[in-house]
Amino acid sequence: xxxxxxxxxxxxxxxxxxxxxxxxxxxxxxxxxxxxxxxxxxxxxxxxxxxxxxxxxxxxxxxxxxxxxxxxxxxxxxxxxxxxxxxxxxxxxxxxxxxxxxxxxxxxxxxxxxxxxxxxxxxxxxxxxxxxxxxxxxxxxxxxxxxxxxxxxxxxxxxxxxxxxxxxxxxxxxxxxxxxxxxxxxxxxxxxxxxxxxxxxxxxxxxxxxxxxxxxxxxxxxxxxxxxxxxxxxxxxxxxxxxxxxxxxxxxxxxxxxxxxxxxxxx
Length: 267
Fold this sequence. Notes:
- The structure is a single chain.
- The longest helix is centred in the middle third of the chain and has 20 residues.
- Strands 7-8-10-9-6-13-12 form a seven-stranded antiparallel beta sheet, with helices on one face. It has a six-stranded mixed beta sheet with strand order 2-3-5-4-1-11.
- It is α+β, with helices and mostly antiparallel strands.
- It folds into two domains: 99 residues, Killer Toxin P4, Chain A; 113 residues, Killer Toxin P4, Chain A, CATH 3.30.430.
- The chain has five helices and 13 strands.
- It is elongated.
- α1 runs antiparallel to α2 and α3 runs antiparallel to α4.
C-alpha cells in the first residue's frame, strides 16, 4: 500500500530535478542504517535549487531488508508518480519518504495529512475507545522519549481480542514536538474513526495506528501470549503498490480496502 500527497511543480530536466535525483540516490543508499532514519540535502550554486529529504522506516523493521526494500521502492515510485512535483510525501506500511524545496528538518508538520479506517465497528464501542485511549496515551509518552521516536502497545479489550497500537515520529524532532505531533494525530480518532476496529493517521512528521491484530513485529519480551480463541479476521495482505494519489481525490478506498480521506488541504 502506498499513499501520497504532492504539490508545487518543478521544471523537467532542471537543476532542481538533478539535485532531487542525487538526493533520492543518497537516501536509498542509506536505507541500511540501524536507526531506519536518514535526512539529507542536495544543492548547487542557487539556493532555489536545494532539495531537502528524509526517509523513516517503521521502528520494528529498521535495519532489515524490509526497510531497504521499502525505501528503494519509495525513491523510485515517488518520481514516477510525481514527476514534476517539488514537495512530496509518500507513505507505505514499512516506511515513509518526504522531500521538498523548503527546509523542514526538526519541525513538526501535521499538514497535509491523511486518515484511514477499517469499515468494521467494535462491539461495546465505549469500552473499546477507552482501551484504545489508554494504549495510545502510553504510546505517545514512550515514543516521545524514545531515542528512535517509536513505541508500541498491546491492551486487552476482551479475553479474545487485543488492541495493538503504534506511534512514531521522525527522529529529527524534539521530545516535546514529537509528543505534540502524536497527540494531535491521536485526537483525530474520535472524529474520523469512532469505534472502528482499525485506523491510522498519517502526518508528515508522525504517524499513529491501531488494529485488533498484531500488525507490527514483536520482540521476545513484548510478544503477547497466543489467544485461546479466534480473533476477528485480519484484512487480506495489501496488493503491490498501485500509486493512489490523494491529491486527486478527497475521499476514496485504499488499495487494502480501507477508507481513505484527506485531512486538510496542502498549501
